[in-house]
Amino acid sequence: MHPKALLEATADLVGLVLKFDHPADQVVSRFFRDHREFGPRERATLAETVYTVLRKKLLFDHLSPSGSGSKERRMAILGFHGPRDFLKSALNDTEKRWLDNCDAVKPDDLLERHRHNLPEWLVAPLKAQLGDGFWPMVESLQQPAPLDLRVNAFTDKRAEVKAELAKAAIKSVVTPFSPWGLRIDGKPALTKLDAFVRGAIEVQDEGSQLLALLLDAKRGEMVVDFCAGAGGKTLAIGATMRNTGRLYAFDTSAHRLDALKPRLARSKLSNVHPAAIAHERDDRIKRLAGKIDRVLVDAPCSGLGTLRRNPDLKWRQSAKSVAELTAKQTAILQSAARLVKSGGRLVYATCSVLPEENEAIAEAFAAANPDFVPMDAAELLQALKVEGAETLCAGGEDGRRYLRLWPHRHATDGFFAAVWNRK
To answer: Does Transferase appear among the keywords (predicted)?
Structure first.
């Protein structure tokens, strides 16, 4: 495709995404559906440019004050994902000079906000938690996330799937913590592979796999995935149960549960029962109260642990939206807890890095529910033979109480989990 045409299309897409009306991945998908003329290479350029702009928005805003062409075009030029000479062949002389000046700017000469590219409300809580780790964390958020796969432990063995992928020229390494994970560089087309078609692999971040591992559901149990969404964790849990017992996948969005159905069919699991519920106090929940062995509450959250994948979230969330979420999280956890039978396990999890969505919710719940005894996440993971279990945990008297994953420390998305046992 001609460089000028590609740059114009990229600027159009950048403009659509920066409206922040919808999640960036949805805007990009719709754009590709409306523009069938782009091949895989052009799509990669378009998508990666948009994500670079979202990651470095404050810096690019700063470098592109009003000048020739539109703001969107200047942002697209700064974030352009492709060879420099290809890009420059699409620029006029003024733009080339401006771009050379931008390239000459040294990071040390920039204001802090143009280096971290985070909204102010998010900076303070991250610095308070991370101290010296703040800048390594920022650095990790500027990089795209790797692609993690979970091998279906019910049907396949990780080493065999790894060898099978290698035959298809897809190199993978085993994930350091999850016993089911394989990590891949790049974005190969997986959906055509036999391993994908027959349900041997699913795309799932290693951190998300560890949440399913921590629930530790056993054969023949009654288990609930309370906010199942599209069911990534549900499928991992069903495999740990060896397709026995009953696993309920609840969600308030029937649309999200629909996305689980084809994945469920591939997985060969018949013990999973998806069910749309009206709200966290639905009658179905009343009927199951006190009967469930294990409940996972992967609560709706700000998603700020996934900024490597969804950099638009830092601009679409706010302190106010987080406050609304914490009220919801508190109510959902309290309702889900009623399902747990005595001696049963409850896991509360988010993909957020903010203490008010994580430790604060867990501590308030523990204070209000003395019959739920906090369990030591590090101890549980050690019992599950997870290497370096202690390094994955934080909080409590000895820094072992909660699972606390960070992109810069663990190469996973940011995740939190708290675990209780009902007396």
So the answer is: yes
Taking the C-alpha atoms of residue 387 and residue 11, their distance in angstroms, rounded to an integer, is 46
User: How many other C-beta atoms lie within 10 A of the C-beta of residue 14?
Assistant: 26
Please list the rounded mean pLDDT of every run of 10 residues in the chain (423 residues).
Answer: 95 98 97 96 96 97 83 96 95 94 94 97 97 97 95 98 97 98 92 96 98 98 96 97 98 95 97 95 94 98 98 97 98 97 98 98 98 98 97 97 98 98 98
Residue type, 58: L
Distance set, CA 350 to CA 241, 264, 299, 404, 417 (Å): 23, 23, 6, 10, 7
Distance CA 230, CA 272 (A): 13
Q: Do residues 149 and 202 make contact, with C-beta atoms less than 8 angstroms apart?
A: yes
Residue 393 CA to residue 402 CA, distance in Å, equals 5
Its pTM stands at: 0.96
Spatial distance between the Cα atoms of 367 and 345, rounded to a whole number of angstroms: 17
Q: How many CB atoms lie within 10 A of CB 233?
A: 25
Task: Return the structure tokens found at 358.
Answer: 């994580």
362-375 per-position pLDDT tens digit: 999 999 999 999 99
Catalytic residues: 351
List Cα–Cα distances, 309 to 137, 384, 407, in angstroms. Answer: 14, 28, 11
Query: Of 200, 191, 205, 213, which Cα lies nearest the Cα of 144?
Result: 205
CB atoms within 10 A of CB 42: 18
State the pLDDT at residue 54: 98
What is the per-residue pLDDT for 150? 98
Other beta carbons within 10 angstroms of residue 185's beta carbon come to 11
Going by the DSSP 8-state scheme, the letter that residue 168 receives in this structure is T
pLDDT at position 145? 94
Amino acid type, 402: Y
> Which ranges constitute the DSSP H helices of 178-318?
194-197, 206-215, 232-240, 254-267, 283-288, 313-316
- For the annotated binding site for S-adenosyl-L-methionine, the residues are 251, 298
**pLDDT single digits (tens) 338-353:** 999 999 999 999 999 9
In our burial notation (b when 16+ CB lie closer than 10 A, e otherwise), range 277-312 reads beebeeeebeebeeebbbbbbbbbbbbbbbbbbbbb
